[in-house]
Design brief:
Elements: E1 11-15, H1 22-32, H2 37-42, E2 46-50, H3 54-62, E3 68-71, H4 73-82, E4 88-97, E5 99-104, E6 118-121, H5 127-138, E7 151-154, H6 157-165, E8 171-175, H7 178-185, E9 188-192, E10 198-205, H8 206-211, H9 213-232, H10 234-249, H11 255-262, E11 265-267, H12 274-285
Parallel strand pairs: 1-2, 1-3, 6-7, 6-8
Antiparallel strand pairs: 3-10, 4-10, 4-11, 5-8, 5-9
Helix pairs in contact: 1-10, 3-4, 4-12, 5-12, 6-7, 10-11
Length: 303
């Protein structure tokens, strides 16, 4: 760190109330108990900020309201492109899997059946939104921001569940625990489940990394240690995720729901630039990005 750069006094970390953000939920659970996982290993207080989906978290990064965030890869790529390769860096992987395209009842049995249907995603430009649009286009179903052969409707996850139950949605591409809730509470059925796709990474503000590289290294090491702990203590991790989601949503979440969602998760803290090329290609395909982007610096390399 430059001798003229102010030292970090706390870390502001973003997360979403999704099981695919299990790292953050477990760490936040420790924080609530007063024995924070990151606090003890980094040596700084942690301030947690909750977002509905990735684009909102990226806006907070640009506004310098947060320093790190767990986020999907598509919003990270979009933000990196928007900033011309600056401002955003990915410091670690977190999760693969934990997402699915869920259809209502037996109305959709093949790809062609998605024509003239309404498919919900968590937020415009988030990972599942981009994946959904790209998948439809690649299967010959034209979609635009306002229409096309099928309608993609960005909708907050709690509203997706309600609209699904009311029969106002034909399908939804979303993440856990909402996938399991759509199956259990709304008569949903999994049509497509990309098991190995990167769904969550840990991203950071570039200027924070530049000014506080040692703090960042400690946080990444603590995140990697947490990955191992979650793998070794699945029952306690599931309980902590359940408790934290219940606290965040102010609604009791069943442990059985978390256990069901857990079967679709693949904890993986490794990261490289290669997976982001797929998401960049998808963003271009659906029209969210136009310019050519060099992804060689999207993954942070500690000095």
């Amino acid at each position: 760190m430059s001798p003229f750069a102010p030292a970090a006094e706390s870390l502001r970390v973003g997360l979403f109330p999704n099981v695919t953000h299990a790292h953050a939920l477990v760490a936040k659970s420790f924080s609530r108990e007063g024995r924070g996982w990151f606090e003890e290993r980094v040596g700084l207080p942690i301030e947690w900020f909750v977002f509905n989906a990735g684009p909102s978290a990226m806006e907070a990064i640009f506004a310098r309201s947060i320093d790190f965030t767990y986020v999907g890869p598509s919003p990270a790529v979009n933000a990196y492109a928007r900033a011309n390769g600056r401002d955003i860096r990915v410091v670690a992987g977190a999760m693969r899997g934990g997402e699915a395209l869920v259809v209502r009842g037996d109305t959709i049995t093949k790809v062609e059946d998605f024509r003239d249907k309404t498919i919900a995603t968590p937020q415009l430009g988030n990972t599942q939104d981009v994946e959904c649009r790209a998948w439809l286009i690649n299967n010959g179903i034209r979609v635009t921001l306002v229409g096309g052969d099928a309608r993609v409707l960005p909708t907050a996850n709690p509203d997706i569940l309600l609209l699904f139950q009311q029969g106002k949605l034909d399908a939804a591409w979303t993440v856990e625990p909402w996938v399991s809730r759509l199956l259990d509470e709304a008569g949903g059925r999994i049509f497509l489940e990309p098991e190995s796709t990167v769904t969550t990474v840990l991203a950071a503000r570039e200027d924070f990394l530049t000014k506080n590289p040692e703090v960042a290294r400690k946080l990444v090491a603590a995140h990697q240690e947490l990955t191992r702990w979650i793998r070794d203590h699945p029952e306690e991790a599931q309980r902590r995720v359940r408790d934290e989601l219940s606290a965040l949503t102010r609604k009791e979440i069943s442990l059985a729901l978390i256990q069901q969602a857990w079967t679709r998760l693949r904890f993986d803290d490794t990261i490289s630039a290669e997976p982001f090329q797929t998401f960049l290609d998808q963003a271009r395909l659906v029209g969210f990005l136009r310019a050519k982007i060099d992804l060689s610096k999207i993954v942070w390399t500690p000095p």
